[in-house]
Structures are given as C-alpha cells and as structure tokens.
Design brief:
- This protein is α/β, with parallel strands linked by helices and 392 residues long.
- The protein is 49% helix and 17% strand.
- It is built from eleven helices and 14 strands.
- Helix 2 (77-93) links the parallel strand 1 (66-71) and strand 2 (96-101).
- It is elongated and about 65 Å long.
- It starts with a helix and ends in a 5-residue tail after the last helix.
Amino acid sequence: MKANKINRTNWMGHPVMKINICPRVEVIRMRVLLLRYMAMTVAICCLLLCVACGMSNADPAGSPPRIALITPAGTGELAEAIRLGAEAAAKEAGAELITVEAFPSEGLTYAPSNPDFTAGQGKVKQEHLQNGTYPLSEREQAQVDAVSLALEQGASALLIDPLSEKTLSDTIQRAQTKDANGVITPVILLNDEFPVKGITSVISIDNVEAGRQAGQAMAVLLGGRGRIALLGPDPENPVLMNRELGVEESLAQYPDIHVQAQSVCSTRDACWQASKQLLDQQQLDGLIALQEPASLGAADELNRRTSENNGNKVKIVGFGSEQQQLEQLQEGRIQHLIVQNGFSAGYLGVNQAVARLNDQQVQARVTLETKLVSTDNMFWMDNQKLLFPFVQ
C-alpha cells in the first residue's frame, strides 16, 4: 500500500511539473523568435544600405555611361573628325555619346549619336544677328549653355573644345557642381590648352612643335632666304602664341629669313583684308597663317593678285585640313598645311572619360601627332586617312 501511495504521489507530481515547465518553454520560444526577427531585420537593413550605397556610386543597372561632346556647330571637317573618333570609342566601350552643338545659328541641338540608345532631344534657342556674325561673348555663352544642357540630360563626362579661357572656366564651374550622388563630372579638353584648374585630361597637339614644322617648311620653300609675315596670331590665345613661338624658334636658325610683320585676324574675310594690306605695304616672299581662317584669307588674296597680275610667287604655309584648304593646296595657292588628327582626338578623349568613370588611371595630357602635308604627299594612304577620316 505504501508503495502504491508513493507511486501515486509520484504519478500525481508529473502533471504538476508539466504545468510549471510549459510557461517557461513558451517564454524561451518567444525570446528566440524575437531574437531571430531582430537579426533578420538588422540583416535586411544592412542589405538595403549596401544596395543604396552601390546605387549611389554607379549608374543604374543596364544604363551605359553618357558622355557629351560639346563642339561649335559648323566648324567643319576637324569637328566632324573629332565626332567620328568619339563615336567609334563610345561604341567600343559600350558608352552613349551625345553631341551638343554650341553655336548660335539654329540654337543648341542635343542628339544621341548612337542609334542603339534612345534619349531625349533638346534645343536652346539663340537669336540671329542681322549680319550673320556673332561676337565672341555670344558664342562663349552658347557653348556654356550647351554644357548646362548636357548636364541636364544626364552627362556623366564632358568633352569640349572651348572657345576661350572664360568658356572653359565656366564649364569647369558647372561640372564641379556635384550631382545628387555627390559626383563631380570629369572634363576632357580637346585641342586647346588654357591655364584652368579642374581639367581631367587634355588631348592636344604640341603647338610649339607644330609652329617649328611651319617655320621649317617655309625656310625650305624660300631656300633659307626671304621676307615673311605672320597672319592670324593672337596674344590672348595660348594655342596661337605657342605656334608663333615655334615659328620663331625654327626661323632663328635662318638669319637670312626676316619676319617683317604680324597681323591679327580671326575670320576669313578679316584675314583676306589683312593679307591685302600686308602685301600692299611691303614686298613679301611668304605668309605663315597660324589658323584656318588666316590661310583661307591669304589664299583668297593671292588668288586675286594672280588673276590681276598674271602670276604670284608668295608662298603660304598654314594650319588645318578643311575641305576648302585642301582645294587651295591642290591648286597651288597654299604650299603646305600642318594637319592634326581630329579622329584620334575624339577617340582618345572618350577613352580617357571612360577610364575616369571606371576609376582607372587617366593621363593628364595626351599629345597628338601633326603632319606636314603638301601636294607631293596628300594622296599617300596614311595622309588620306588623316585628311578624310569620314570616307570609308
């Protein structure tokens, strides 16, 4: 009986023990669930934070980097060669190239050059002047407006051939205004060299060396003896100043060649008038034209004099590869042209922009080669590619 009592007592104790343990198990279970929930919440928050950080440092998935090429409209074959080179590099890199023409003719036009990408178009209106010409200040503002338009269209890098130091300064100022992600837009400078801070990379020829080439070419044409004038220098333009310096350095080796005069001009008509005045006032054997309008203006005046005087012996060495210059070269009005590779400028400019956007090493300066072209070598295969990059 005792044993039965004890057993009964023990048996009766088990339910009591279960009743006392169950609440503790439930409490522990609730705590475990709560801790798991808190851990999952923290993990999700961390994941969302990482994703947000990644999105702030990169373009949305599937969106290619958009690179804007800012060029004055109607600038001819050099601008077209630059655009073609930029397009080729953008296609290789999987980037989107948009072009913004910054010249107050029909306004600023924005258009994606890669048909594989669809992007909006925009235009900033500019009013015409009655005489069809525009002061530098208006052209500068048009180029700055083009930069603003490109940034509004989401450009992540800018390629620009600036009209002036002021234009470049304003461009840098706009590009350094951080976007919503705190990113500063890199600026790649094409074909100019202005002392402005904030430039990512400069793609340009060595203008001093190009000036030396021009001076040497003129010395050979004149047989080391003669009187010449410089047409188109500009004391405020570092590009033209460096070309002038190179000419002077080269001609210093020829004591019998004398630089008689200089004439500042920046348009074809103004340079034609300047050439006429120079040749009316003194006997010259050669003209070194430091920019495209100067060589065309000089050729116009020599063409007029040839027609009137039945012959002319003044030699011209110029810079550029515009179609009308090449025609004057073939006709013998211009003897030599110093030509740069615009296609390479655009191509390398986009490559530098893509490298910067990918946090890769970028060259502070890339120097392009220049070539001396004449009727003797303009039809060589290499020079054909240089002079006519748009011909397939």
